[in-house]
Amino acid sequence: MDTDAQLVSLPERDHSPEPAQGEEQGSRSARFSRLSRRSWRSRLKAVRRWYADGGPLRRAGVLLSLCLVSLLLVSGYVVQPFLIPSGSMEKTLQVGDRVLVNKLAYRFGDEPRRGDVIVFDGTDSFVQEGPPENAVTTVIRKGAAAVGLMRSSGTDYIKRVVGVGGDRVRCCDKWGRLEINGRPVLEEYLYPGDVPSQVPFDVVVPEGKLWVMGDHRSDSRDSRDHLGEPGGGTVPVDRVVGRADWIGWPLGRMTSLGRTGAFADVPAPGPGHGAGGPHG
Q1: What is the C-alpha to C-alpha distance for residues 197 and 117, in angstroms, rounded to an integer?
Q2: Which pLDDT score, from 0 to 100, does residue 277 have?
Q3: H/E stretch holding 39
Q4: Distance from CA of residue 59 to its chain's centroid?
Q5: What is the model's pLDDT at position 228?
Q6: 213-230 per-residue burial string, b: 16 or more CB within 10 A, e: under 16
Q7: How confident is the model over 209-228, as a mean pLDDT?
Q8: CB-CB contact of 212 with 222 (8 Å)
């Protein structure tokens, strides 16, 4: 028999390092999956053992950490307490009140309306740059702000929306009333004894901006005080943090901040209302 010829006629062996597809490959995947599940079970058991064997202090620390993380997530994306630092929004809000700011109010296509009480970042409108702050101070401030113990930022403000993009806001008419798009507004929320403004002004609010004022007009630094600065005192809509919907503290003042009807009869801005420019 020709041995060489017989060897040549035999099928060649596959020298490929890759395993053949099929049962063997499937079994390797299954083994890997089982090993992964065992690994996760082992880790989970180890965590449970660490938690159970740590005593009451460790368990309390874990629960406190979970509560803090949950609070920070809710405060960062849903509802945030905001400490009222001044009397600029009296009588509606008093110094020391904690309002709950709805951060979802304008997330889904809705925009601030006249009369809304909003919290906004005043950078580039009310202040040109924020105060310097180191990393440790920032962490402490953000943690305290999440529970309403401090202001969330030195550049955050709370005011009432008086004019939206396209509105002509003027003060005052011959009876001393605020006028928007030619219609006088009776502001029932003003601090007792206050007038709408002791300083006359006449502005057309640019699109995408807001004209905001405090309810305690004689004790509020608001859009009127920044007319000569970049932005003309108006606040960009995209700087709005959220809408103040409730007073959450103190307990005796807990209430919702309903919408005012003062602006119900204000017409939409039209060609005749946009004439003129800012006046101090």
Answers
A1: 18
A2: 42
A3: helix 23-52
A4: 32
A5: 87
A6: bbbbbeebebbbebbeee
A7: 96
A8: yes
Residue 72's closest CA among 15, 142, 130?
A: 142
Name the helix (H) or strand (E) containing 93: none
Tell me how far the alpha carbon of residue 176 is from its chain's centroid: 36
Q: Tens digit of pLDDT for each residue in 121-131?
A: 999 899 876 56
Options 88, 125, 152, 220, the catalytic residue: 88
Through-space distance between the first and last CA atoms of the chain, rounded to whole angstroms: 115
pLDDT for 220 beyond 70: yes
Catalytic residue among 159, 197, 209, 223: 159
Eight-state DSSP code of residue 237: G
In the predicted structure, residue 177 carries a pLDDT above the cut 70: yes
* Whole-structure pTM value: 0.71
d(Cα 268, Cα 280) in Å, to the nearest integer? 24
Which residues neighbour 28 within 8 Å (Cβ) at sequence distance 6 or greater? 19
Closest CA to 104 of 240, 248, 211, 254: 240
75 is catalytic: no
Both tokens assigned to 231: 């932005």
pLDDT in tens, 104-153: 999 888 999 999 999 999 998 998 765 666 565 655 555 665 555 556 66
Signed CA dihedral, 106, 110, 113, 116: sign only: negative
Measure the CA angle with vertex 112, ends 106 and 115; round to 5°.
140
Q: Is 159 noted as a catalytic residue in this protein? A: yes
For residue 278, count other CB atoms closer than 10 A to its CB: 14
